[in-house]
Amino acid sequence: MGGGSRMSAPIVSKKSDESKPAESLKRVPQTKPFTLAQLKKAVPSHCFQRSLLRSFSYVIFDISLSIIFLSVAISCFHLLPSPLTYFAWPLYWSLQGCILTGVWVIAHECGHHAFSDYQWVDDTVGFILHSALLVPYFSWKISHRRHHSNTGSLERDEVFVPKPKSRVPWYSKYLNNPLGRGLTLAATLLIGWPLYLAFNVSGRPYDRFACHYDPYGPIYSDRERLQIFISDIGIFAASYVLYQIVMAKGLAWLICIYGVPLLIVNAFLVTITYLQHTHPALPHYNSSEWDWMRGALSTVDRD
Ligand SMILES: [Zn+2]
User: Fold this and answer.
1) Does the pLDDT of residue 226 top 60, yes or no?
2) How far is the centre of ligand 1, averaged over its atoms, from the C-alpha of 110 (Å)?
């Protein structure tokens, strides 16, 4: 299975010579072009240095901007003439969504121990930031690390694992048209992230129901279960704060200031990871051909 499942049927260029392989397949790594040691050597050494000060400056910058946008929305929007509010709120949602995506990514870096030299600082910052965005920090950190350790593996990658033909659902042929694809894309952007966390949608197959909130689920080993409980406590705490806000201000208020920006954050991160792992040029390998370097190189990656 040369280049993984996406290569099982030869893809040909429609524009030019039908017998030539598509341009995208030329990028599929057939051999290892360099070793991990060579790759590391090519990266400037300062890129491996973690700076607590610089990392915290990003957190403070992003959170300050977020608070400024929030303050403007809360204190000024009700003063605007009503037609203008139809522009002001979408502008707020877009800006807040972008900034909070930055916060989300900082928490992701904490999960990779890239924030500082201190593991406890990284986990504390990551736990607070991700919980505030309703991400179970340790739960996802663990499965996400496994994704980086198994990228491009048909058997062990954690997410965006292409299904073999035998596991493609019967209804998918009805969705393979412009309307179906549009609806699928919209649903993926809107609810793909919570569906993955809660039901392992698009994740790797497990022998039983897999859920990021379940400490006893098949995703986690015995020594990881306590961290899943802690992640759940973070989600409960954040949910309790949101509940108190609903009681004080109402659900519509919370949806306007927090709910819609959070949906934008989720859509951003699904878009980013979708583009990283589902391009036709990116193969997935079975266990006879996969190795870490080959899988890691088969990614349009930024992290
Ligand atoms: Zn990562």
Assistant:
1) yes
2) 10
Q: What is the pLDDT of residue 277?
A: 83
Residue 17 has which token pair?
Answer: 């010579």
Q: How far is the CA of 141 from the centre of ligand 1 (A)?
A: 9
Contact (Cβ atoms closer than 8 angstroms) between residue 142 and residue 117:
no
Coil vs helix vs strand at 246: helix
| Tokens encoding 101 | 């995506």
Phi (first) and psi of residue 184, to 5 degrees: -65, -45
302 CA distance to ligand 1 middle (Å): 8
Distance, CA of 243 to CA of 250 (rounded, Å): 9
Instruction: Give 303 Cα–ligand 1 centroid separation in angstroms.
Output: 5
Q: How far is the CA of 247 from the centre of ligand 1 (A)?
A: 36
Q: Which of 219, 217, 216, 213 is nearest to 238 (CA)?
A: 213
List the shell of residues around ion ligand 1, using CB closer than 5 Å. Answer: 303
Q: How far is the CA of 12 from the centre of ligand 1 (A)?
A: 33
Instruction: Tell me how far apart the alpha carbons of residues 54 and 62 are, in angstroms, rounded to a whole number.
Output: 13
Q: 275 in helix, strand or coil?
A: helix
Q: How many angstroms separate the alpha carbon of residue 108 from the centre of ligand 1? A: 6
Share of residues in the chain with pLDDT > 70 (%): 89
pLDDT of residue 158: 83
Q: What is the mean pLDDT of residues 28-49?
A: 82
CA-based end-to-end distance of the chain: 28
Give 22's DSSP letter. Answer: P
Q: Model confidence at 24, in pLDDT bands (50, 70, 90)?
A: low
Cα 154 to middle of ligand 1, angstroms: 18
